[in-house]
Amino acid sequence: MEDKELEQRFVFRDILPEEAGQAVAIEQICFPPNEACSETMMRERIKKAPEFFLVAVDKETGRLAGFLNGIGTDETVFRDAFFTDAKLHDPNGGSVMLLGLDVLPEYRGQGLARTIMSRYLIREKERGRKRVVLTCLEDKVRMYEKMGFTDLGLSGSFWGGEEWHEMSCAPEGGQH
Fold first, then answer.
1. Is the pTM above the cut of 0.90?
2. Is 27 in contact with 37 (CB distance < 8 Å)?
């Protein structure tokens, strides 16, 4: 699906407090239990940093189709505590640590994840961020490289008992 078609089909915006339940359900569908954010933590993130969520709302159903979320910090290296401690969020931080890109299965393969990421990076550039950092499993490295991220190698993260790659991007799409 072309970006123009996605623009017509979805509304892209910050998450609303009343959408927390939908976000929790989507997270549980998109990630295995050992990797998924807990309901408590997801609700805490939404309460503490709603402007660090970017949701795609299906105009036809009014429901979330997917979202990207992160927290602000002045740190530059990803650590597992970002997943579990919303108090680490600094809304004025120069970096964003991405904590999850979730797209419901019925919306995959249409470019929605790419569009959400692109819009997120543009927004964070406008907010003056210097870098956006994420971790991903080996099989997602290529996907994130196509979105402008550079693979920095294995991360110090062992979230969910997995081995993660740390990836970084300057929000203007240049590599960092």
1. yes
2. yes
